[in-house]
Each structure stands twice: as structure tokens, then as C-alpha cells.
Amino acid sequence: MPRIAARVSRLCTLLLVEADAVSSHDPELMYQNADALAFCGQSDAALRQLRKAINGNYCSYPAIDNEPLFDSIRQRPEFVELRQAAIQCQQNFLAYRQQVDSTTQARKPNQMYSR
């Protein structure tokens, strides 16, 4: 068991060092890094990655509520704030999608295209 714990600790350290470099342009990877960092006990780094994911329009709500790897940070005020940001992100996306859908529907003719 100590060997496994040492290996997990080493992997967590590598994740912390490489998290920004690997996921710097992919909000979904930032989210995945956040949950792994939270699991590794790197709460501050996890919250930073989660913030970057949400700011990158990875609207992680409602997944953020059901992710067990976030249990260690769920009660932190920063997490509560990020959860609200994720909810707002999703609401903004849904409003935009509804706008696009209604615009697309207005442009379509009422009859089917035939070839």
C-alpha cells in the first residue's frame, strides 16, 4: 500500500505542475484537472482550474453538483461562487441556443426540400 500511495502522490504532484501547460486552451480538460486536483488534496489549484474552465465557457452545471471528486472543496466559499458562475454560464448558453434556434427556424421554409 505505501508504494501505491507514493505513486499517487507523485502523480498528483505532476498533475499540479503540468495542469496549466496541458489544458491551457481546453476548458473541458481544465475541468477534468480540477476534479483530479481536488482528489489529490490540491484545493487551491483545483479551484483555479475550475474557475478557468467556467471562464472558458465550460458550463459544468449540473455536473459540478454531482462530481464526488469535488467533495473536498464543495463547502469552500470559492466553490459556491464558482457553482453560481457555472449556473449563469449554462443559462447564458441556453438563451443563446434558443436565440439561434429561433433565428434558424425563421429562415427555414415551411415545406420540405425535394431533390
Can you characterise this structure?
With 115 residues, the protein is mainly alpha-helical. The chain has one domain. 72% of the residues lie in helices and 0% in strands. It is built from five helices and no strands. α1 runs antiparallel to α2 and α3 packs parallel to α5. The protein is elongated and about 65 Å long. The protein starts with a helix and ends in an 8-residue tail after the last helix.
Summarize the model shown.
By secondary structure, the chain is mostly helical. The chain has 5 helices and no strands. The longest helix is centred in the last third of the chain and has 31 residues, at about 75-105.
